Amino acid sequence: MSQIKKGDIVGRISYGKDIFFKVKKIIKVDDISIAILKGIFDRVEANSPLSDLEKIDSETMKKAFADFDHKLNYCLQKKQKSPNKIDLIVSGKRAQEKIIPGKILHLDGDKKYAEKSYYYYQKLGLHAVVKNIPEYKQPKVAYSLLKIYRPDILVITGHDGMIKRGTGYHDLYNYRNSRHFIQTVKEARKFDDETGNHLVIFAGACQSYFEALISAGANFASSPARILIDFMDPLIIAEKVAVTENYKYVTIDDVLSELRDGRKGVDGIGAKGKLTKK
Question: Left (φ > 0), alpha (ψ -120 to 50) or beta: where does 125 sit?
Fold first, then answer.
């Protein structure tokens, strides 16, 4: 078998290749080659000895990507056919009432996820700005981006994961990127305190430090049960808040049926909707 290198798509043999990863980089630890991995279809980061990795063949990956796109498009088709869909253009030559969904700023540590997220928002007619920013840089740019775009909803996500599973649940440094998400939430709340905009924040990725994200000021976060979350979970939350009238309160119950793993993957204190009518 050819040598595994940066950029290869692999699975972990000991886990039955249940998750497909891209090799982010390869490092040496005590003369053992370790791959730093990020999920292709799950918002998770992990590491593994090269000896436990196997490349995924191109046909398998082609089918997996096709299934992923099919799932995304199927979800969009259902939403677009829904009788509850918000129509941005009111019938008639001149709209009697202008409907304005909340504006979304989405920071994503993964380029492909950022592209898919933008596609999702655009297809639903939502006003969204999506930026591909590595997790560790998000706290450094959050304030300036909020100042530029003035969103109603902020999504902070990318990849995460527990370094030691089943232990250290309240050890911030047992999470790969939770500390960056937490700091980004705090930066966003500093901006919010100045503007009084009552920004709605979703923060986190797979296995993220849920309690600390909520304590930092997130309205919704992952992952209470420290499980993998679905790629679409942050998008579903952002969309629901964006299209809910500003006199209504959005809770996790309002989207529970759309989340793959319910409250195990995402939960929160809720927030007022951000849709306005003029």
Answer: left
**Six-digit token string for 33:** 């080659």
Rounded CA-CA distance 3/264 in Å is: 38
Write down the pLDDT at residue 83: 53
Looking at residue 143, its amino acid is Y
Cα separation, 182 vs 187, in Å, equals 9
Report the amino acid identity of residue 121: Y
pLDDT at 82 (0 to 100): 65
Among 14, 71, 15, 16, smallest CA distance to 41 is for: 71
Residue 173 exposed, middle or buried by CB count within 10 Å (0-12, 13-18, 19+): exposed
E strand or H helix that includes residue 45: strand 45-49
Measured CA distances, 155 to 11, 81, 112 (Å) = 29, 25, 16
CA angle 30–33–37, rounded 5-degree value: 125
How many other CB atoms are there within 10 angstroms of residue 15's CB atom? 11
Q: What is the pLDDT of residue 196?
A: 87
H-run or E-run covering 212: helix 210-216
pLDDT tens track for 233-249: 999 999 999 999 999 99
Are 178 and 208 a contacting pair, CB within 8 Å? yes
Tell me which CATH code domain 96-277 carries.
3.40.50.10090
Contacts of 47 (CB under 8 A, 6+ apart): 34, 35, 36, 37
Mean pLDDT per block of 10 residues along the chain (278 residues) reads 84 93 89 90 91 93 92 86 53 61 97 95 95 98 97 97 90 97 97 92 97 98 95 95 96 94 96 93
Place of tokens 């590595």: 134
Reported pTM = 0.89
